[in-house]
Design brief:
two-stranded antiparallel sheet; 15% strand; alpha/beta; 6 helices; binds 6-phosphogluconic acid; EC 3.1.1.31; 28% helix; five-stranded parallel beta sheet
């Protein structure tokens, strides 16, 4: 298990729709907070179904909330969006992304964590796979243990597409806030493992058990994903 630095909160909702609404408010509220604090809001978005679950940020009736609290305050010019350079090889794309991250630190867009010394994002929005992978850090791949680099890559991801780049845990766990957005019954067993209520299936703690945020890690679960948690959990 991660040496938990910040708080850990588990939120359970009746449906994925309710998760989506809560996630929109959570994101808009954090945007309000960080914009007030420092005039910027830095967010990392993982792939997968999370992107669809973010829909309420831009759908009515949440749209007004999201507009007032998020989109109007951080109209995101395309120059502020850092997509992966998929014209490069995985190795090249990882090096390119790492170089861009270092430039954001040099230009003071991203601070360094006073705890870890790694670049510190305000918010990371992450999903989790049934094997307990987070971002593209997979249980069976050594790069999950990378402790120096900011961005690494694999060419044989167990989840397609095979070539991927990913933030490493030193960067992920330096974030102020992390939302683990997990919905669906097929993830219920791994949620139980991730929250420390059940031993990992093969005795090796999967990446999801290593996630921690410097301020708060918040799990957004629907009823199905939370179905294995003890009722008091
Ligand atoms: O696939 C990606 O882009 C993400 O890096 C990966 O970590 C994803 O968040 C999980 O695999 C959950 O994906 P689903 O929510 O689509 O199952």
């Amino acid at each position: 298990m991660a040496t938990q630095k910040g708080k850990k909160t588990v939120l359970k909702f009746d449906s994925e729709e309710d998760v989506s609404k809560a996630l929109a408010k959570y994101t808009a509220d954090l945007s309000e907070k960080f914009i007030k604090q420092k005039g910027s809001f830095t967010v990392v978005l993982s792939g997968g179904s999370l992107i669809d679950t973010m829909r309420k940020l831009v759908e009515p009736p949440n749209y007004k909330l999201a507009l007032d609290g998020f989109l109007s305050k951080v109209p995101i010019p395309s120059s502020n969006i850092y997509a992966i350079n998929d014209k490069e090889s995985p190795e090249g794309a990882a090096a390119d992304y790492e170089a861009r991250l270092k430039k954001l630190v040099e230009s003071k867009v991203l601070p360094l964590s006073a705890i870890s010394g790694f670049p510190k994002f305000d918010l990371m929005l992450l999903g989790m796979g049934p094997d307990g992978h987070v971002a593209s850090l997979f249980p069976s791949r050594p790069h999950r243990h990378e402790k120096e680099r900011l961005v690494t890559f694999i060419t044989d991801s167990p989840k397609p597409p095979p070539p991927r780049i990913t933030f490493t845990f030193p960067v992920i766990n330096s974030a102020s806030e992390i939302a683990m957005v997990v919905t669906g019954a097929e993830l219920a067993n791994m949620v139980d493992v991730a929250l420390g209520n059940a031993p990992p299936p093969d005795g090796i703690p999967p990446p999801c058990t290593e996630v921690s945020a410097e301020e708060e890690l918040t799990w957004f679960l629907d009823k199905d994903a939370a179905s294995k948690l003890q009722t008091s959990g």
